[in-house]
């Protein structure tokens, strides 16, 4: 599955780019799987996702929990807890 | 009549009175308009600006989802939410919420609900620019904001 990953705030800064397209391995099925997989891609991903429990994820621009599947995702947003308002 | 909410994410400032007029002018059924404006503060002089980052598309979509919930729950007659992005200096506006209803309690509650959910669910992030010229930290999410949202889960 090829998805567009988009990063924001300190996740974007630590990974060093705002977005990228990526082919995901077939065994990456849930949000949690995705975060574990991304951490293997290099030090910058490891730094961004060091504490995956605080990371928020959106699939096709809607919030999802870590146990949820990413099947059908075209765009996956990965970012810290939100601080707007 | 419950028109859909007004949702905008923009770099430029907003005009409070113009936004109230857009929502309520000419209507004879609205008895209460509550507005909330969030401003950038200087944190006792240590902060020169906030840099507001957002997730384009999702920010508007999430604000609209929250606004639709608020309109439904409090039977609002109008709701507007405008959030700015980019560099915002102390004293300048960040966010505006306007809730209109027949009576005051629904308008107060609608505006409060909108803000409590917006702070924890709408994809915006604040980075500090400090008075010593350095780029400071990203603002950390507050547990108090999560608790403020949780009180609506009844």
Automatic annotation (TrEMBL), chain B:
It catalyses: 2 [molybdopterin-synthase sulfur-carrier protein]-C-terminal-Gly-aminoethanethioate + cyclic pyranopterin phosphate + H2O = molybdopterin + 2 [molybdopterin-synthase sulfur-carrier protein]-C-terminal Gly-Gly + 2 H(+). One of its GO terms (biological process) is Mo-molybdopterin cofactor biosynthetic process. This is Molybdopterin synthase catalytic subunit. Heterotetramer of 2 MoaD subunits and 2 MoaE subunits. Also stable as homodimer. The enzyme changes between these two forms during catalysis. Keywords: Molybdenum cofactor biosynthesis. Its EC number is 2.8.1.12. One of its GO terms (molecular function) is molybdopterin synthase activity. Converts molybdopterin precursor Z into molybdopterin. This requires the incorporation of two sulfur atoms into precursor Z to generate a dithiolene group. The sulfur is provided by MoaD. It comes from the Bacteria. Belongs to the MoaE family. Gene3D superfamilies: Molybdopterin biosynthesis MoaE subunit. Pathway: Cofactor biosynthesis; molybdopterin biosynthesis. It is an enzyme of class 2 (transferase).
């Amino acid at each position: 599955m090829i998805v567009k990953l988009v990063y924001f705030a300190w996740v974007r800064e630590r990974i060093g780019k705002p977005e990228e397209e990526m082919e995901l391995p077939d065994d990456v099925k849930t949000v949690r799987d995705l975060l574990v997989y991304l951490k293997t891609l290099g030090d910058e991903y490891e730094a961004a996702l060091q504490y995956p429990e605080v990371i928020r994820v959106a699939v096709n621009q809607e919030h999802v929990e870590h146990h949820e599947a990413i099947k059908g995702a075209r765009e996956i947003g990965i970012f810290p807890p939100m601080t707007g308002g | 009549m419950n028109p859909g909410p007004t949702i905008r994410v923009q770099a430029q400032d907003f005009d409070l009175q113009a936004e109230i007029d857009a929502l309520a002018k000419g209507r004879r059924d609205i008895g209460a308009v509550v507005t909330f404006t969030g401003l950038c503060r200087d944190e006792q002089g240590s902060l020169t600006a906030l840099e507001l980052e957002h997730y384009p598309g999702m920010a508007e979509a999430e604000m609209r989802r929250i606004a639709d919930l608020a309109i439904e729950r409090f039977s609002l007659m109008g709701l507007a939410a405008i959030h700015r992005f980019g560099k915002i200096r102390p004293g300048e506006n960040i966010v505006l919420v306007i809730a209109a209803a027949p009576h005051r309690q629904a308008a107060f509650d609608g505006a409060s609900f909108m803000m409590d959910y917006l702070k924890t669910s709408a994809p915006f992030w604040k980075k500090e620019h400090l008075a010593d010229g350095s780029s400071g930290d990203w603002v950390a999410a507050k547990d108090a904001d999560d608790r403020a949202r949780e009180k609506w889960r009844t």
